[in-house]
Amino acid sequence: MKLSAITYCLLIIVSQHSIADFSAIIEQEMTVDKGLHGGKFETIFQPEWNVSINEEVEMTFIARARFDTYNNLGPEDKRSQNYSGINGSLTSGSNGDLSIREWYIDTEVYDSFWRIGKQQVAWGQADGLKVLDVINPQSFREFILDDFEDSRIPLWMLNIEMPIGVGDSLQILWIPDLTYHEFAEANTTFQITSPLFVPSIEDGLPIVGFVQQKPSSIIGDSDVGVRYSKFYDGWDLTFNYLYHYHDSPVLYQQLNGAGTTSGIIIDSRYERNHLIGATASNVFGDFTLRTEVGYNSDTFHQLNSSPSTTSSPTTSSSTISPPTLDTNGIFQSAEFSSVIGLDWQGLQDVFMSVQWFQSHLFDYESHVIRPQNNNIASFLYKQTFQNENWELNILSLYGFDQQDSSIQLELSYMLEDNLKIWVGSDTFSGNSDGLFGQFDNNDRIKFGFEWGI
């Protein structure tokens, strides 16, 4: 759909209805690395219209224009392959892009709440990492440093919530938008390099080809989800089910040719998964206890594999022929993931939270690069000063198995009710093979402001 047509339709709707609210934010952030080199000088303009079409129908439209002078987080001069034909930037250049961030209609049908259009849906409550918050894919242009609200990629979907009895509800999701994670591009600051996620290729074997197989059927390849929410004896409970494609492609590796002409072909495919999960939270005085658990029927992990003469599965590429890599360099297993968190607000203007993430692979072998049990802890500290004009935020994540960590620190000040400035830092440590350690050389300082209109 052309940008001009979208803008024209929006202006017609707004002009014909007097009950319309407009707001916008302008955000500017600059980062500097350890060598005092600029990492980004990014400006974001995000306007929002909220229109009451009638007493039962409301529309929300959020656009986003982004411009980055340095262009070190990934050029946007081409359409990323992770987006479906109905998603992604409307227009882009080498230093910026323009997109519809969200666009949805809210209405009621037979006492149920319907939200139809491009939107975000959050099922999880964890800080820093995710267990159940996998409805929307994520942009990793800045790894996991962005707030989830900003890094989630909104999807076109049908979102229905129906009340059941007193206080209970059922949510149904139908997601025909075949958009997946957006990763940082090659040779940019946050390019993923850890062998936990990228193939471990034997020395001397070049990558000679790349085959991408992406879901294409809006109906057959749709994601569907159901969540039942209940309040029982002081506990907020949810029970979740999602049938979906993993938002990260599985990078199967296959050996093509033999001898001096041999090389590796990467066969990239998105794989299906059943996610069954639950959440629970309760307040005990100054403490809040919360937990999430999730069972994934099929997860895929990198192997330290070497060439063998086993035959390969059927692929769509006629150039691939045996011999191939053993098991195509990928190990498949069901996985159980969980997070338990404890929040404390025992002092005025202070909030603290600790979390423990764990994931367990039900099947395992010694060649799998990640450990069978993966453990990560987090600590979050927030404090406001001088009538909430100043705010300090610290989020620390530590991986016990890779022995690596990240620390995000930000100190902000409200100059006016609608103008906030901040200074902060993002630091990483650990081995280059780890989730956080792969960015050990990418520590940075950041400065910025946000102005609300």
Walkthrough of the structure:
Strand 12 (223-232) and strand 13 (235-245) form a beta hairpin. 4% of the residues lie in helices and 53% in strands. The chain has 2 helices and 24 strands. The two termini are 28 Å apart. It has 453 residues and is mainly beta. The strands form 3 sheets. It has an 18-stranded antiparallel β-barrel. Strands 11-15-14 form a 3-stranded mixed sheet, with no helix packed on it. A two-stranded parallel ribbon has the order 7-10. The chain has one domain (3-452): Beta Barrel (Porin), CATH 2.40.160.10.
Element layout with pairings:
Blueprint: H1 3-15, E1 20-33, E2 38-52, E3 57-68, E4 91-93, E5 96-109, E6 112-119, E7 139-140, H2 148-151, E8 155-164, E9 168-175, E10 182-183, E11 207-213, E12 223-232, E13 235-245, E14 250-256, E15 263-269, E16 272-284, E17 287-302, E18 330-344, E19 350-361, E20 373-385, E21 390-399, E22 404-416, E23 419-429, E24 444-452
Parallel strand pairs: 7-10, 11-15
Antiparallel strand pairs: 1-2, 1-24, 2-3, 3-5, 4-5, 5-6, 6-8, 8-9, 9-12, 12-13, 13-16, 14-15, 16-17, 17-18, 18-19, 19-20, 20-21, 21-22, 22-23, 23-24
In short:
With 453 residues, the protein is mainly beta.
